Amino acid sequence: MEQIVYLDGAFVPVAEAKVSVFDRGFLFADGIYEVSAVLDGKLIDNDAHLARLKRSVGEIALPLPETLERIVGIQKELVARNNLRDGLVYIQVTRGASIPRDFLFPKAAKPTLVMITSEKDIVNSASARTGIAVKTVADIRWARRDIKSVALLAQVLAKQAAAEAGCQEAWMIEDGKVTEGGSSSAFILTRDDVLVTRENSSAILPGCTRKAVTKLAEERQLRVEERAFSVEEALAAKEAFVTSASLFVQAVVRIDGQTVADGKPGPITGRLREIYIDFARATAV
Ligand code: PLP
Q1: How sure is the predictor about 282, in pLDDT bands with cuts at 50, 70 and 90?
Q2: What secondary structure letter does DSSP report for 111?
């Protein structure tokens, strides 16, 4: 079956979905995106993702072309039309197309809204069992990383460098501290069992999975400290892991070729992964 995507009001086969070369997403990366997971055909923690979408577009004065209620309806219809059981729904909204190319916001352009699904078995992924290796890279991104902008060149380069080094994720470093993963939030569990993840600020994206996992951990009496940590601290930690909509919770077992603890996914990471998956299934819509 050919994949169906959503583009500006229509559900169309991929080959028929066309966006103008004047689209500002293409020319200026003038757009915002979101990614929600799908389990058993249902959306995971979707309200949090749509709240962040609303905030991100607001921060760049980009009007959403549809209400959030309508966007949920489109997400669900797209999942159904593609018979998607497990995977992701990607949403992108850009400031639209206007001619000629000009930096200033166009007066008449209509935002472009695109949604795409992809299949992914997040629950049974092999890397969840083995853990992942990360490579550290300098964080060369702009100063508003709290906005989920489609301007992802720094992350493209970071994740490519990680892959070329045989790693599955990049950890980005600024002022000697980890900001976050290329497309994930970073956590460590210290020797005295404190879960540490960087505090939200314009230096990182406020991860939806990060938020859910810290809340679930606190509800289970695990101490959570929101502060920056260094690679040295991560290498001395009991456990390390990343969170994201497309990974849920995944152990980090190597950083720049050095093992974290015994180089195997730790028990608290494994437990938090199970707890998150239970939460995801229980709250899916
Ligand atoms: N940080 C960055 C830079 C990301 O790109 C992502 C997800 O794409 C995350 C963190 C994780 O966010 P979430 O848990 O909302 O998927």
Answers
A1: very high
A2: P
